[in-house]
């Protein structure tokens, strides 16, 4: 199949290599033209602009967006809306909010253009060698791209999830679970690190990654991280986040679903951004007021 | 009533003044003899030792311990066990663990000596002007001291709670609630502090302390703290703890009672003791492994 | 001062009585005309419609909305926007979302009409005998109504909080704290209820309400509730919520403020709405899969 | 290697089959003699009693306990202490508390007998086909059994963790992480179940188990559970627990380690045991007291 990938960052770059290795023709575009040129040397067809990328495709055109969630997606959808024809297919493979995907679906549908919201999990390695893809949107559009999707995901690691938004919704929830799992792993190692025992953390992760109930890719990655830095002495425990955990909690609140573990994993990320906290100051000051307990001065 | 106070720290000192102002005779002892001498000038009878304090009382002797929870209580109970006679009454007014109070009760009961576990809330001001007291142990021993207890607690702010340990158990739970309330207040002010609005926190605490649903002594103290330091700039948000919150949670776990707010208020105290966290490092390292997300180097 | 109250539910009705008892002239209107008639017998001036209420006032007119948060506020603001004149003052005393209050402020400001967002705490009793009011909006509009505000709030229980939205924002945070405090109290009693001791809960609440660190109105109300039903046997532990706790958490998430206690108190409310949970089924099924642990069949 | 397995429940039975399939000689004993007889038909040597099992071994004897944590372990350790000789090795492969394992290690060491605390993860399938084993105790004892351990754990899924107790400590933490992960998965599916989308949960688990960041054995098991019962309609969401999660949290508290996700996953298990809650009643009653909000009557 011939298609265009717009956005050649960590995910889009690897996805393009994956597609090429399965004999698909990929028109590659990025605002940083060096990325497309690099992929050109790997067999992709570099495009100089969005217009150029569209022009290099034949109907029904398939355009895969692999850009960060946010305004840039809307800009591209607007631009493509003017360039594409009925029957063409736009895929958003990024981490967009599912409500925005529903809006974009409606916007393109008004022009007869299909929009598929594709949640992609598996990191850079997944993009390159086989990820997990959750795909919402019109079934006929999905059917058109399924052979290509099958090629780039090993072991049938993809799912057509139904109506518009359901792919990104599912990916959002996946990330919420991921937050909880990662925090759980982190907490376990924190207790080990504070304990009286002197464990080799890489070996702990290795043994847990083999045969245990908690084995899985995250544990493989935990071992890999500890192999590089046995006690993680070189890094700070600042946990950034890029939105999906927050969206998951907000969605849970809207649905009145009790999700304490997802909530706490998100809140501990926020806590990690602050060196000191105002709530801590208030509590310390109160303890001093009623009990004369000493406070720590700055 | 004539009684001895052993331990003249912040709480014992103020309690002695409270008793003296209600015309009770107080034999006062502390390892730091200057404390008893000071109270001697206020009308107390200074004692040079535990033996001396006991010798200065008449049967049935009433001895009130106001010392930190822990070994020192056991040492005093052992010492008093040898010095006292059947019918005498030992009061533990500190924050002892209720299980230890039950053991001490049994130990003294074997000698015919009463033991009352008295949980005391209200801080230093309460000790001085009227606290809240929760009293477990033999009813007849309570009946003997009730007139004195009534004097030092305004508005009948005391309760005979029944069998041995029930006083300290109730105080423990009180402190668990206190942890939750303080954390709730702290969190509220943290959101205010991070918001786009520029509130005068002392005024906020003042208005909340007048007529609102959340009015109470903690809010009065919050106002007082902000009056001294408008943004609490001079202190660090390190939240120490002295045991009762932890005991409350441990007890809740034993009883399989779901207490998420008490649990989280305790865990945030522990979190505040660490400048950086190991769980944060693990999560940051994992994000880097699967998604190539940048980590913050030390 | 002469003013109109629109909305004579639990809060508006009591607020009207409060104003009347301080010799203010109150034009009273509710969709249920019997409420205005009732208040007419107490000295209020019943109005037959919003138009009638406005007509009964003189410039600068003061209109106080005491209606549930939501669409009805917008309908009234639109209606009043057409009826009022520059310099008039609309007060929203309900629990509106602060962002909506900012929008309404802007909408009325375009017509020269003042809008004050007044967060009101203290329950029905507060509305009647003196509440806590947090007031955002134009300072000159506040200055105009301050004498009236002073009358109906004892001990200066009001605060001008600054720009539009800041009153409702502060009330929102107040409610977030309230959620945390209530859950903390509830958890404490749950541990008592599951403990080996047989406490008289009304007496426990009474003693905690007198002299303790956690004394306050919520503890007074706890005592009152237990006096009516010693073990709360007649009611179910279903905890409904009306929005402010959710808004507080959503705001905290937007500000990246770690508020675990507020979060958990909200999530436990949602949890209480479900008799059974899907997350529980998943965990139970997983335990069965890996360990053969028995599941409970329906 | 020749060794005895005491305790032929789900784990011990499968472990025996595993050992037999690797040509080890297994003396098998259980209080239910039919279990040993059954395994006798598979090639094991049935023993009629603990004494008989010991008598059937040659020095240095290796005895593997596979019984539930608790008193039964102490009874067996006492019994074996009298039957065994210096140099013999007792293995506790159950989920004992690490502090008890240290005590048992000391008790047997006084007689010259080795004690290895072996945390075993992987469920029944792991016991049968290759689990994950974490082994604390004397290194020489470990060295003696390592060849056998290697046989029954694929991919080197075992780790010698050092001094006594460190094996069971590590297994305890493993289970704490497991609690967090399972709750995270459960919460994710709860949000899906409450959402507007109609997902096929088995297919969701399948796709997440292939290529995603959260792939792992728990996700495989999630798929398996949903294949049997698409919406888990037949079971109740009651989440029992057998101790390790509680011990993990208690240990974290002792070490002042902030573990909110592990804490909440445990507390939600406790919450699931109650059809109604007392904290919910208190909160509902309080809302009624201050705001007149309706309560749900029983």
* CATH superfamily grouping of the largest domain in chain A: NAD(P)-binding Rossmann-like Domain
Oligomer: homotetramer
**Terminal Cα span of chain A:** 63 Å
Q: Low-confidence segments of chain A, ≥5 residues, pLDDT <50?
A: none
Radius of gyration of chain A: 23 Å
Q: How many domains is the backbone of chain A divided into? A: 2
What does this structure look like?
- The structure is a homotetramer of 298-residue chains.
- With 298 residues, chain A is of the alpha/beta class.
- Chain A has two domains: 2-163, NAD(P)-binding Rossmann-like Domain (Rossmann fold, 3-Layer(aba) Sandwich), CATH 3.40.50.720; 171-275, N-(1-d-carboxylethyl)-l-norvaline Dehydrogenase, domain 2.
- Helix content of chain A is 54%, strand content 13%.
- Chain A has 13 helices and eight strands.
- Chain A has helices at residues 10-21, 33-41, 50-55, 71-83, 98-109, 123-129, 139-152, 166-194, 201-208, 217-228, 244-254, 260-273, 278-291; strands spanning 2-6, 25-29, 45-46, 62-65, 89-92, 114-121, 132-136, 158-162.
- Chain A has an eight-stranded mixed beta sheet with strand order 3-2-1-4-5-6-7-8, with helices on both faces.
- The longest helix of chain A is centred in the middle third of the chain and has 29 residues, at 166-194.
- The first copy, chain A, is globular, with a radius of gyration of 23 Å.
- The N and C termini of chain A lie far apart (63 Å).
- Chains in contact: A-B, A-C, A-D, B-C, B-D, C-D.
- At the A-B interface, helix 6, helix 8, helix 10, helix 12 and helix 13 of A face helix 6, helix 8, helix 10, helix 12 and helix 13 of B.
- Chains A, B, C, D: It comes from Brevibacillus gelatini.
- Chains A, B, C, D: Belongs to the 6-phosphogluconate dehydrogenase family.
